[in-house]
Amino acid sequence: MARDNNKTQVVGHSPRKVDGVGLVTGTAQYVDDIKIQGMLYAGILTSPHAHARIKEIDISAAEKLPGVMMILTYQNTPRVPHTTAGQGFPEPSPYDSYMFDSKVRYVGDRVACVAAESETACRHALKKIKVEYELLPAILDPRKSVEENAPVIHDEKDSSGIHDASRNIAAHYEAELGAVDKALSKSDIKVEGEFRVQYAQHCPIEPHVTISYLDDRNRIVIRTSTQVPFHCRRIVAQCLQIPEQKIRVIKPRIGGAFGAKQEILLEDLCAYITLKTRRPVRIKYSRKEEFISSRTRHPMIVKMKIGANKDGSLQAMDQDVLSNTGAYGSHSLTVLTNVGSKTLPLYWCDNIRFRGSAVYTNMPVAGAYRGYGGTQGSYALQVLMDELAEKLKIDVLDLQRKWHIRLGQTHPMSAALGEGKEGHENPIHSCGLDACMELGAEAIGWKEKRNQAKKGRFRRGVGMAALMQGSGIPNIDMGAARIKMNEDGSFHLFMGATDLGTGSDTILAQIAAETLGVPVEKILVYSSDTDMTPFDVGAYASSTTYISGGAVHKAALDCRTKILQVAGEILGGDPASLKVENGVVTAANGKKTSYDKICQRALYSRNQFQIEGIGSHTSPVSPPPFASHFAEVEVDMETGKLRVLDYVAACDCGVAIHPKMAEGQVEGSVANGIGYALSESLYFDEHGRCLNPSFFDYKILTSLETGCIRAILVPTYEPNGPYGAKSVAEININGPIPAIANAVYNACGIRLYQTPFTPESVWRSLKEAGKI
Amino acid sequence: MSLSSFSYWQALSVPDALKILHNEQQQVKLLAGGTDFTVQRKEGLWQDKHILDIWKTKELDYIRESGKSIQLGARTTMDELIDSAVIRKYAKPLHLAACVFASPQIRNRATLGGNINNASPAGDTLPALFVLNAKLKLSSAKKDRLVPIHEFFLGPRKTLLQPNEMLTEIIIDKLDPKYQSDFYKLGERNAVAIAIVNLAVCRKIDPRSHKVTDIRISYGSVAPTVIRAPQTEQLLLHQTLTESLINKAAERAQSEVSPISDVRASADYRKEMSASLLKFLLKNNRS
């Protein structure tokens, strides 16, 4: 299915990033790189208790301190139920959050906010606020949330969209194809397990930070580190109860997000203080606040069963999910359903059931995090596939090859289960999974290593996982772009799409350049400014290249049509017969003209108009990228310490618009995923206080620790995507946990059902299994 | 960072530093590489202290060999320890400990004196110094005194260093080539990890009788301070290292450690690992 890419001049090549030089030389500006005259510094007082009512809050001493300009609490701010989740409107997340509330629901919840002339004054004032709490019993274990007599975390009257507040259930979803129980009971072979994953934080190197100020027309300008500038504008308008037209959101350069910034966490406070004081305000999270008060991955308990017959045919798959959404239900429903919808349609099976609840606890708030449920679901599914292959006494690769979804097929589960609701028909137009498995297996040395003898203290093994994800949310995600031509033959590309360090400004410029027939240097990108650029839902759901790229492609085609009209006037030919190469238009009769001359004519001499194009794009389907991951590990049988020796990630992302950056996305996701598999974890005491909110004891892996990561791009051509592209950003974080767990089993015969696989937890599993 | 007011001195020589310590006493915190200090101050420690920076006291930056001992200036960095042929040859556990210490960037700044004075039960160089019978030279304006390292630590972050004193020199035994010695750090990851358990061992075995003629075992991260394991050592001394004796020693070692549970590992696991790592190092003939 791969098309001949030699025809493309820009797409499929790896030009320098459009913002690269600025980033490495330090001239590119992040949110906190500017300082505005008269800027106030705001900070947040957070709850030391997991669950409590504020009986009294005394700000009098703090207010009197020099330099203190404003103190916000629930008593002097608008109470508007909303969700912090930056999702399409109406959001599928419950409206259970308030700027401030008289109740705190986790350690790290907002209590008050101080804005002062200096950071020091702000810090002093925060210490002077006296709060008296009435402590309430707290729920720290999601399994206890639904118990009878459990304290109700959202007992407020004005929340909405909560599935069952009285039982602490934020969201619930069920979908079934066929008759799962019956099919399971009839199956020759059954494998099942309960898989648990832990709290983890995204750890963007740039924490959440926002600066807001009033412009000369009294509009609030919010310069913020966000994935979702347009949703940010809408939600801030909602919280402040002012029209969107009063707000402009600008996203400058961003130092990483990974889902954590698909949330409105600081912008409402910052903008509100600017509105009230008319002063510029900066607010940012410290690393500690980033860990405790921002967002995390949803910890989950996934119970899964697979029934199969002796011929290996899958008879039933049953997935039962308990998701811990923490104190608020941000992304609770959609992450929950994606556990199933991003994993179950991978295999042919007539009887499939998904059931899941996302429950409130008095713990940090979970939200969007790269993988978005797919990470949790793949763990259960891919370990059970390994177990099933073992029971069938066949190579797991043969099992995978036989039953995975293929080109031209439409999986009924895609229609039954979507993102937070029913899904859509999602026929597969490109699938390189077989090639991924073949190339990955060869690279890791599957055959020799899988069957090598295991003995001694250090035991080695290999394991694999097969993966799918999506490209955007079908019929919801929308991106738009506008292209304006300049008289020197260059183009301005305006788009809502949001580059977070992901490289989308470059990729989208490549798509524009390819379509317009110019080198990428001719494209001047301006993105993510709600005043200046068209709408885009933002950077999430692996949608930017696919959805926003589609919009840029359309805008460029529109612009190109207009260029050729003018060229036709100059050259005297039918626009359809004209050829474009490198900014030069050639007619059938050999006459030529160039882009600068075309634009000069349109702007200055004949039939004057601005040559420009606009495009909007949505997609009725969400083409899955596919991947196959292979890990080789070494287990120290004495200490339980795991080393990942080699990791191969073969990924079908369609046509890679910028292969180097696509490889970077694969490598980054895998490193991120290995960290989650081995060591990244937030730990809590019996009061719900986080014990390790710093890089000191929260272990993200260093480059030396991740071992050798090898990305293999397996080209296919996705007809629905711009120049054949699909997504690549998330899928590869879903592989490390199951691939490593399966490799550990291969090495030493123990199954790991709980992450992270720390030395101690592996050692305990070894001990329980009687291996040591 | 804190913005409370404080004085900052930079000493260019030891007498300068001792003079300031003599005059100011209670209020001064010594600063060398700053790799612990800056982190701790950010977390609120040392806010009421003046700072005496001794990073530029180059006279404390040395590794000297004389007779049966090695003298190390307190300002010697981890990186310098790693590069020293003398340390590699005669004090292998210290070399190995420096190699796994934090990260390359930190090893360029962190000093041996700083690691000792920080008095963390998990300090990576400490078990090595314990088995090398280190003696610490504590200097004040009036006098110097020598303290064996095992007497120096009173508890986590507590030492018997007086406010007018500073650690100037560390003197360790040279291990002659007949010694086998080793160091093992078990951490959650390799770089910038606080040890779950640290273990240093050195032993000398009579080539003819195969009996142990000297053995020193020291653990980190399993007690309020780094410790030696005297009963375990006693059990092994003058014996042949058979498998059953090693197993017995490992069991004994478990009774000598008193670990706690924290975010890095449980007490149980630390105890088990104390035994398991000892078995590994005693069976291992890699030195």
The overall number of domains of chain A is 3
Strand order of the largest sheet of chain A: 3-5-1-12-9-10-11
C-alpha termini separation of chain B: 45 Å
Tally of DSSP β-strands of chain A: 26
Low-confidence segments of chain B: none
Oligomer: heterodimer
For the record, what is the CATH homologous superfamily label of the largest domain in chain A? Aldehyde oxidase/xanthine dehydrogenase, molybdopterin binding domain
The appropriate CATH architecture of the largest domain in chain B is 2-Layer Sandwich
User: How would you state the average pLDDT of chain B, rounded?
Assistant: 94
Biggest sheet record of chain B? 5 strands, antiparallel
Description:
The complex is a heterodimer of chains A (about 775) and B (about 290). With about 775 residues, chain A is an alpha+beta fold. Chain A has 3 domains: about 5-30 and about 475-615, Aldehyde oxidase/xanthine dehydrogenase, molybdopterin binding domain (Aldehyde Oxidoreductase, domain 4, 2-Layer Sandwich); about 35-135 and about 210-285, Aldehyde oxidase/xanthine dehydrogenase, a/b hammerhead (Aldehyde Oxidoreductase, domain 3, Alpha-Beta Complex), CATH 3.90.1170; about 300-475 and about 620-770, 2-Layer Sandwich (Aldehyde Oxidoreductase, domain 4). Chain A has 20 helices and 26 strands. Chain A has a 7-stranded mixed sheet with strand order 3-5-1-12-9-10-11, with helices on both faces. In chain A, a hairpin with a 5-residue loop joins strand 24 (about 625-635) and strand 25 (about 640-650). The longest helix of chain A is centred in the last third of the chain and has 28 residues, at about 545-570. Chain B is of the alpha+beta class. Chain B has 3 domains: about 10-55; about 60-175, 2-Layer Sandwich (Uridine Diphospho-n-acetylenolpyruvylglucosamine Reductase, domain 3); about 180-285, Enolase-like, domain 1. Chain B is about 35% helix and about 25% strand. Chain B has a 5-stranded antiparallel sheet with strand order 4-5-10-6-7. Chain B has a 4-stranded antiparallel sheet with strand order 11-12-13-14, with helices on both faces. A 3-stranded parallel sheet of chain B has the order 1-3-2, with helices on one face. Chain B is globular and about 60 Å long. The interface between A and B is medium-sized, with 22 and 24 residues.
